[in-house]
Amino acid sequence: MVCAVIINAENKRIKLCNEIIGLMYGYIQWNSYDTEAGGIILGRENLGNDNLIFEFITKPMKKDIRTKNRFLRKDSEHIEFYKQLYSKHNGVYAYYGEWHTHPEDIPHYSIIDLTNWRKISKEDPKEMQYHIIVGRKQLRIWEMRKKCFMPKLVCEVKWDEINI
Ligand SMILES: [Zn+2]
Question: CATH number for the domain including 58?
Fold first, then answer.
């Protein structure tokens, strides 16, 4: 699979595949009436090194709650998609975090996002999660490490600097 964006996040690289970049781009809230979108990020470790490849995301589903300033992942289909992927590929793919859009050019996480990310950090067996917020001018990725109370911004991808 062709990967579009490679990010250097401290000691590892994260690859974001074309397809998920394109999907997220399609949900940007250009208009004031557009509602937030989101889903989960699924990926795998690159064999031989610590690099991560984010290869799939889920799209908003019927039972999710979507308003102009809020995305609530309520639909069980997100996890269902992950479970199917997991069994189809013998456990190669794992959950890495959440993504959602924001109605702002340069996205910042809200208190609600922070609360949610902290909760996930506690519950997820993995040491780290990566959460993406998609804004109108850029997409940003935060790393949430277990026992660290605050997320760390690891990268910014400017839409006008990549090929969609
Ligand atoms: Zn948010």
Answer: 3.40.140.10
